[in-house]
Amino acid sequence: MFGRGMGGRYGAGGGRRRGARGTNPFILLMAARLVQQIMQLPWKPPVTLALMGLNTAVYFGVVNMPMLSGPAGAVCLQPASILYNGEWSRAIGSAFVHGSDMHLYFNMASLLWKGVQLEAAFTSGGFALLTAAMLLVSNAIYVGGAWLLAANGYDGLLVSCAIGFSGVLFALKTILNVMAPHESYILGFRIQSRWAAWAELVLISLMVPN
């Protein structure tokens, strides 16, 4: 998700560390339900589960790598820091950083639903390559769009910070829509597939605005 001022203008800045507060009991119940769903899967998609594990480990501070650790403002996708400071690690690490329990849960639940289908369709190796490509492409579009807007007098996006797996999930959802171009379900609601990716993006923006 996006937020102004997390990283400051052209700098790493601060921002709170993820997982620093107590976990929401409701999220714990939802997470337990998600684990139950995983256990009930007839086939456990290894790449999908590895990605879920990595995102969760980063959020709770288990992974200690410079590009994945520290305050959100130091690792977020901030176009100005990438373009003018050469902080290219943000283009990858920012996707694995989440700002809250709800942000993490929503994205991991979405990743599981998409990953099970796409990994079965493309094989684990193909899905790994697809996910890596979508991560790079989605973040490149974000940075490129920010640069184009700044060149035309609007630098708001240039100095914004984005974190989380939502960009990758949006791309994966779009691919799923092409593969099954009729109807999708979001939080139990049926919606036309051509609008599903946008509806999910709006929903996560409303649920986790910062």
UniProtKB/TrEMBL annotation:
Residue ranges of domain Peptidase S54 rhomboid in the record: 86-205
Biological process terms from the Gene Ontology for this record are:
proteolysis
Q: Which Pfam families match?
A: Rhomboid (PF01694)
GO CC annotations, alphabetized: membrane
Checking InterPro entries in the record gives: Peptidase_S54_rhomboid_dom, Rhomboid-like_sf
Subcellular location field = Membrane
Q: Which GO terms fall under molecular function for this chain's record?
A: serine-type endopeptidase activity
Give the superkingdom in one word: Eukaryota
Question: What's this protein's name?
Answer: Peptidase S54 rhomboid domain-containing protein
Organism (species): Bicosoecida sp. CB-2014
